[in-house]
Amino acid sequence: MKLETVDSSAIHAIGYNARTRVLEIIFAGGGIYHFAGVPATIYHSMQKAISLGKFFQTHIKGRYPFRRLDPPRRGSARQMTMLDEPKTRRA
Fold first, then answer.
1. Please, what is the average pLDDT of the chain?
2. Domain presence at residue 91
3. Residues 6 or more apart from 56 whose CB is under 8 A from it?
4. What is the pTM of this model?
5. Which structural domain range is residue 56 located in?
6. Nearest residue to 31 via CA among 66, 76, 64, 75
7. DSSP 72
8. Is residue 41 part of a domain?
């Protein structure tokens, strides 16, 4: 997946795979996450957002299942470590 660095204090880079609908976010603190089932419209809106951190909090966090990836070690591929389902909102 091709990543683009972004101008944000919370997020370092983002990338999107349209075929699999996976959004990758690398946070400024170093965490790498894949969010599943994200529509392309959300990714394109995120690219245009004034505040990526606020966009993430409002439109992505808690809405899509995600996996945290371990940072790559020398000579090895990334390892998925956790799967979390989005929280359902109660009326």
1. 85
2. no
3. 10, 11, 25, 46
4. 0.78
5. 3-84
6. 66
7. P
8. yes
